[in-house]
Write a structure and sequence with these properties.
Pfam families: Glyoxalase_3. By secondary structure, the chain is an alpha+beta fold. 14% of the residues lie in helices and 36% in strands. The longest helix has 12 residues. The chain is globular and about 40 Å long.
Amino acid sequence: MAGVSPVLDHLVFAGPDLGDAVALVEGLTGVRSVPGGRHAGKGTANHLLGLGGRAYLEIIGPDPEAPEPGGPRPFGIDELREPRLVTWAVQTTDLDADVRAARDGGWDPGTPESMSRRTPGGELLEWRLTPFSHADGPVPFLIDWGDSRHPSEGLPVVPLRSMFGVHPRVEATTALEAIGVEMEVQAGTRSALVTTLEGRTGPVVLL
């Protein structure tokens, strides 16, 4: 995959309304995503599309069947006005070791936390991840699925062709280097991710 590190786990496409975000992605790609599950206590639910290999696109928004959560929803969802690509995750099999290595390299990805969700079929998926920060832009969070099945298995696929970052500060490149990720980062006035997917009728840009 040109321009994408092989440690990509998933992209996060978030919106203020889950149904609208799901419909937008389907309209652009021509491929229908599948329900992933609900995040208990977080007030969110997601749909998923494969990106090829062990990677996927997460479409996430407020869970219409859940009560208001006790705190902010993840990924800045409560502040979004429209769906957009907000961040991405790097796959690791030893999260604590990689956090220590990143800190030694000059970037602190934050303290890991545990999360879980049940799939529509009742399977429990559990994982650990580092926090998401609005200021990070193209800088990913880290995720470790432990013994759980990886969510990319069995998904309809919209191949990821390329990805690059945009960021106004050099610290973004420093952070990527600290976790060993190779990704182009262009200078810009705001932080962003720009990805190209291969939809049913041709290339689709998500940002």
